[in-house]
Amino acid sequence: MSVKSCEKIDNSKVVLTIDVAADEFEAAVNKAYFKLRGKMNVHGFRPGKAPRKIIEKMYGAEVFYEEAVNIVLPDAYEAAVKEQELNVVGYPQVELETVGKEGVTFRCTVAVYPEVKLGQYKGVEAPRAEVKVMAADVNARLKEMAERNSRLVSVERAVKKGDTANIDFEGFDNGVPFDGGKGDNFDLAIGSGSFVPGFEEQLIGMKAGEEKDINITFPENYTPELAGKPVVFHVKVNEVKTKEVPAVDDEFAKDVSEFDTLKELKADLKKKITEERKAAAQRAFEDVLMDKVADGIEADIPEDMIELQAQRMADNFKQQIAAQGIPFEQYLKMTGSTEADLLAQAREPAQRQVRMDLAVEAIIKAEGLDATDKEIEAEIKKMAEQYGMDVENVKKYLRPEDVKDQIVREKAIRLVADSAVAVAPAEEKKESEEKTGE
């Protein structure tokens, strides 16, 4: 293989003309022969046993050229890209210029990472919220903890909203039971909205041991078999339970934490909430800063970069849908959308992400940022502790180069944040001005 020419046709595309010598192409033609000979019928020979020259005489000298080109192209293209030190994006558009005994010549047009001119990335101004934690915030967190530690207790009264009713139920469509419409000893939280609209409300007022029929019409966007259909559920209430929330006192503090008093627990919660909000405020601050830095770059971004990022985002969304147990095709039917719609929706966020990535890479290059082996090891150890895994097991799933990339990216973002100018958000500034009478 040799690169005949490497021509830049704009700031984000390159045309490579690649020659593959006669001996290399002959070797590829021979590989093609061994691959395809079993599929060719030649009178007088068993399948796969006909000599190459006989097949070429019968079908023409070019019979194996197409497959030989497919064999030789990937390695030749990869070698040419490496030789020219190109940072390519996506897949090339390939034109076959010449092919024959003398060899083959390809013309490959491929997008490359664009040259990026950074705008301002130091001293950027962005709003950062002041972190305040009030007594009401701590009490709200305590209430959440009490709710999590509540228990259900049986009561001898009719079902009310907020109760949990243990029920047996069976659904009938025109008197015939339908699939998925039956359940026994099912705990249903009244008001949760987890059943078909109208079902839970009709349980209110029923007592343990009581039975009745409930009339329901399924929503139009339900499963096709039942969408829009009126059905009847026969329901029996087995037990009525209500939530018992523990009192928030010193005993509660001992039960749910390592502290002996409620006062100590409150102090710890205030500290944790403060740390959480500071971290969230910092992330929001950094997001605004990096959006400004990304908006300030100058670069001719190839469409291939945006399309690849949009496809990655769409693929990630598909995985999230699958993780919820919903087949992607079913999701498309439920939402009345297509995969093309999904890609179109991903285009704008993909464009923002590409600009962000280019900006970060440009900062890394401008500042000569790097990560040492010691830093990489420390980050892997930190991740192992975070997920309760052994360091060596973490290394099986993470490549050091990926960890390095993450560390360097974080350094670039931290560099921007450390040099930034934080100002009060508009609403905080307005409140301050109102208080001072300005």
Number of E-type strands: 11
Report the end-to-end length measured between terminal Cα atoms. Answer: 75 Å
Overall 3D shape: extended
Portion in helices: 40-55%
Would you identify the CATH H-level superfamily of the largest domain?
A: Trigger factor, C-terminal domain
Highest CATH level, the class of the largest domain: Mainly Alpha
Low-confidence stretches: none
Plain-language structure description:
This protein is α+β, with helices and mostly antiparallel strands and 438 residues long. It folds into three domains: 2-112, Trigger factor ribosome-binding domain (Alpha-Beta Plaits, 2-Layer Sandwich); 151-244, Roll (Chitinase A, domain 3); 261-431, Trigger factor, C-terminal domain (Trigger factor, domain 2, Orthogonal Bundle). The chain is 47% helix and 22% strand. The protein has 13 helices and eleven strands. Strands 6, 7, 8, 9 and 10 form a five-stranded antiparallel β-sheet that branches. β1 and β2 (13-21) form a beta hairpin. It starts with a strand and ends with a helix.
